[in-house]
Amino acid sequence: MGYDEDASQRGRGIFLTTSTILIACFATTTLIAGVGILSYYLPTPCTAIAEHILNGSTYSPSTLSPPPSSSNPWEDYRLPTDIEPVHYTLELKIDSEKFSFNGSIDIRVTCINRTSRIILHSKMLDIYKNLVRVTREVDSMTIQLLKEPELYPDMQYIVITLASYLEGGQLYIVHIEYGGVLYDDLVGIYRSSYRDDKGQKRVLAASFFSPANARKAYPCFDEPALKATLAITMVHKDEYTALSNMPQESVTSRYDGWVATKFQTTLKMSTYITGFFLSDFESVTAVSRNGVEVRTWARADAIHEVYYGMNISLPILEYYEHYFDIDFPLPKIDMAVTPDYGAGGMENWGLINYREASYLSDSSSTVFKKRRTAELVAHELAHQWFGNLATHWWWEDVWLKEGFASFMAYYGMDLVEPDWNMLDQFLILDVHVAFGLDALTSSHPISVPVNHVDEINSIFDSISYSKGASIIRMLRYFLGETTFRNGLKKYLNRFKYSNARMTDLWNALTEIFPNQKTNTIVHTFVGSRLDYCNSLLYGIMNVSYWEGHRRYKWIIPLTFTDGLDPKYGENERNRIWLSNGPVFMNDSSKLSGGNNNWLLANIDQTGYFRVNYDATNWRLLKEQLLENHLVIPTASRAAILNDVFNLARGQHINTLLALEISRYLVVERDYVPWSTANDVLAYIHNMLRTTSAYGVYIQYILELVTPLYSSLGWSDEDSTDLDSLTRSLAITLACGHGHEECIQESHTMFVHWMQNSDNNMIPENMKSDVYCTAIAHGTSDYWEFAWNQYLTTQSSAERSLLMEAMACSNQPWILSRYLNYCLDSQLIRRQDATYVVGYIAGSAVGEVLAWDFVRSHWDHLFDTYGTNMFSFPRLIDSVTASFSSRLRLKELQKFISDHPNLGTAAKSFEQAVERTRVNILWHENTIVDLQKWLEDEVRVV
What we know:
By secondary structure, the protein is an alpha+beta fold. Among the domains are: about 5-60 and about 555-605, no CATH class; about 75-300 and about 345-350, Immunoglobulin-like, CATH 2.60.40; about 395-530, Orthogonal Bundle (Neutral Protease, domain 2), CATH 1.10.390; about 810-940, Zincin-like fold (Alpha Horseshoe). The protein is built from 29 helices and 32 strands. Helix 23 (about 810-820) runs parallel beside helix 25.
């Protein structure tokens, strides 16, 4: 693994070649740095890689190259550049009772190049072709149409062909009238519903336009760079309140109970962040220091649950204004809490939508629930600057908004909930999540060319969100807070109300920090792919990436300290650049320890790479953790666990070494390391659950977690939120691994609730564990009780808890029935069905049932979710996550072969095949030794 045979003979030092470090502290230590591999998987020859991993699943740049330009512009995926929008005047009449809408739009456009054709987007709209006209603005002269406007549904275009040319530099008005259906498909403008406190069904209209569905609500130039202003009027029944991006300008009566709500003209903006909302909701209002009116809207039965979100919104908004030194540019923000929403939230400028189950929280909500609410609010508010004010030029750089919003959310959460230690939780919620996907060869660079709508949808994954945030976090730490912040302010001010490319951000940062390494480091981590044969061939010999026909190598910012004089502070850490060519450090430079002191590299895992050490250093770190783990900071302990177990998963080190290090967990009491342990041990749990080693593995985990469980108990009284998170995790692990007292306590609490269903005394933070444990170990009556509670509760948070817990049943017939409920949106909401299938797939029994369900009902699932950028990929990921047999591999391959169109789940299936191959190899190479170690260890304990 990049080992220099002579390094250990040269005295204590660091030998650096490319992104491989040999740290000759005691023998040889290797740090592995890379994008798309992260030391995962298969130190096998290149031919074996092709056989075991890359067969049919290699990331190929050719699949992402732009298609050849057509002589017919309506066959291209991108709009022609001859016409650009300036302003939209839109009137939209929404009839929620008839599930329909009608629109009339005037689009003021400028002609850039002389043309006789206007092409714009339209999706599933009924264009009234006889009411399409084009006029020249300067004299209102009508431009005759050569023929009737043509629709190209595959490309989602309207093509208006004119009898004469439009002249460059002139302004024209394109008038279109149209109609549409208010579907319940969660994209475009769609209908949602709920039942009020009297049981009456109420219908509302909401919108979700990202990335390319504004065209489903009104004809438009639906690309992010084609910004324009909008004047919107919504016509609706007077019993409803209409919301859009800007404040109401007027409300006028029309006829028979209809009114027209006209909104102020928007700022220059992209179409995907326009928004519409029509409901009978109630609202609560607050005003920021700068006079921004913030209102949250929810159904009357749930309005009392919006106050947590409201209370944190204002300080986060004001914090971002201060941090970016740019005031929020709109006079108001409405936050609409929608019963059915295709994502957790959507950042429409001035009209943020939230999924009800993700947003609503109150004083009794679990800490997990409040954390989810805080994360959503902070994320969507950050988008008001990153994405809305300064927008990516094209979707290949979607991470410019999603990565930054994900990163800044931690600053917002840390502001309003400082006791949560969110900057440490960044590791478990984003860095480790990104590592998981980025370890696959079927991963993709953060910035990747996209052309078709399905390709756009497919990159809204943890690479764009979590890896993007992790790279930005690395930038923040190696640039320093002041430099980083000044660079962001320069970028936002330069591109506000405009569009930017990835290079524009780097240019702004390098102007503040004029170091050549800045641009190079980001370019390699963001826009690269691996030379997999060279990098995986013999354990990461040369980690490099290709750009065209040239191969480059990473420049890595490395921090480190040692056991003799550990220094962890941001300004105290030892730093070194890993770049091209060898670099040596001797005893007199940075490292002061001797051969009996451990070395810790990549402090707090601020760098986006994994670290591997030689056996001696691993032993010294293990001994330190067992002797006094608090000498190593919380985040670094989590990083050690995540690195060692994933290096073992990729067979770069022995799994037994990882388990040896896990023994220190008997003394660990902090949440972040335990959450990391829960994640990495879950992989082993899932791989062993159908093997003979499972029983002894369960005993080992109980030995580790029982001290934590016993020390925390069941009472949340006088506990911090972080203590409550740790307690809930301890109960999850204890009950989930058969701790008898834990199971009995859960059973007792649940039975008491069943006996008095109107008085649920189960502590909020324990509900998830109690519900799941009781249903798993109880009779079918327990499940039926939970189902009835699910159907009758008015609390979206309670529904979410019950929905997940009911998947804990061990009865195949119950799980099969539950899966069938997912086909009926009256029983399981469309937005929730994919979650339910995924929850069921989490057990050994459920995995088989869920996979059979997906294959049996594929047509229904594809028609319902096939174009959804979140639900469909998540469904496939969760169902296939634990596949580890050759039978499952063959089934996956056959299914893919039989279904050439996999919609937005295509990449997920590719990753499932690769992950299954890796799991098979892990089984074949690990199980025997692992079982023997566990048997010996449990006997000793």
